[in-house]
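Chapter review: from sequence to fold.
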Amino acid sequence: MAFGLYIRTKLNESPVFIEAQEAGHVSESPISETFKNNYKEVLLGVGLYLAVTIPFYIQTVFMPSFMVKFMHFSSADALTIYLIVLGVMMVCAPISAILCDTRNRERLMKIVTVCYLLFAIPYVYFLNYQTFTFALISQIVFASIIAFYIAPIPTLVTEIFPARTRYTGMSLACNLAAAIFGGTWPMLITALITGTGSNYPIAIYVMMAAATSLFCVWEVKRRRDQKRLYLI
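The token string follows.
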């Protein structure tokens, strides 16, 4: 937290925001204005964030306890895998950020969402073996996919809002996605697993999130082609 606060206090605002601020074009009631004028962009941002919030909550919040309660792993094994997975995400996210700066951002995100769709079922399938090795491999691959999607998402969502309501719009999109879909995930999926006796609802939920985000990435690409995005 202290490190993040230091960066934020030393980081300069974007030239676009400074220009808008000097011209008096910054909103005095950004929340109401965002919902009034940019509600479509908020919904688009929520859709883009689904492939972050749902998989991230699965991997970092739900999975450690799920492995102990439902898969009968020891707490030590579950936490060991958890720490390795966090390390993988820390390595992969900067690589993705570099690729986003040098390659087409939307194309990378399309590839990653397709990887979600292809790996969601194998992710659960390998977990069902209930061995440390298969669980580790499964979660390393899944964590890598998450990390490659996390890196470009803030920039992409930022571009869909005008400078006047950009900070508020991005914050609303991120937090609504986390609160509505990410925060409710553990309760919902636990009920589904208990009710069905199967672990595959995890895969289905991931695929639904990935499909929604893939559609939203296509929409961003369409807006870019129509020059309807707001450059930073």
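Two observations follow directly from the output. The radius of gyration is 19 Å. The chain has one domain: 39-225.
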